[in-house]
Design brief:
The protein is an all-alpha fold. The chain has one domain. Helix content is 84%, strand content 0%. It is built from eight helices and no strands. The longest helix is centred in the last third of the chain and has 56 residues. The termini are far apart.
């Protein structure tokens, strides 16, 4: 296999490196999301119930112990729950945006790999074709079909490899973006539950 790939030229190495980096990013995000799924739970409703019962200290302690985007967002919201509504909503919005940015870590790199992998493959093909035609010129144009075909398939190898890396990257990126959109919606729903509880709290 390595011997086969080596015929694609020096650009095979960066394409393979891109595939390794992309796989590492995808696995890291999947593992991170799996951990968060078991932590958020019904935290927003639990905190809202405590807030509604005027147990702010217990609510703050509960959210602070929960190492999840929901827990961090609610912790920041509880700290300013007695401030005016505009300040509270601003803090909540900023907290959600911060968590979404954190969830989106490395996704831009994954998208970049999906974009440059086929370009690297195309560059490898162009370089290979240039070399093939240089050989034809050096031989005075007396090249049989077998020699020409061999040079062309070696040149096309990098394009195929680049596409083979880019397509899974694009699918993985779309999947992760969809997961992040789901988490963002959960954060927004949790914020609504919290704000309703604060509104119903006496003296709020």
């Amino acid at each position: 296999m390595l011997e086969f790939l080596s015929k694609g030229g020096f650009l095979v190495a960066p394409i393979l490196l891109c595939s390794v980096v992309a796989l590492a990013i995808f696995l890291e995000r999947i593992i991170s999301f799996a951990r968060m799924k078991s932590r958020g739970g019904n935290l927003a409703h639990s905190v809202a119930d405590l807030i509604a019962k005027d147990k702010s200290s217990e609510a703050r302690e509960l959210s602070a112990k929960n190492d999840s985007p929901m827990g961090r967002m609610l912790t920041q919201a509880i700290e300013v729950k007695d401030r005016d509504r505009e300040t509270l909503e601003t803090v909540v919005v900023n907290a959600i945006e911060g968590e979404v940015r954190s969830l989106s870590a490395y996704l831009q790199t994954l998208a970049t790999i999906g974009n440059i992998a086929p370009l690297l493959g195309l560059l490898g093909t162009v370089v290979g074709m240039i070399k093939a035609f240089m050989v034809i010129q050096q031989m005075g144009g007396k090249v049989n079909a077998a020699v020409l075909a061999g040079g062309i398939w070696e040149a096309m190898l990098t394009t195929a490899l680049g596409l083979a890396v880019a397509l899974p990257c694009m699918v993985a990126h779309s999947y992760l973006v969809a997961r992040i959109d789901t988490y963002e919606a959960r954060l927004q729903n949790g914020a609504v539950v919290f704000l309703k509880a604060v509104t119903k709290t006496p003296g709020a």
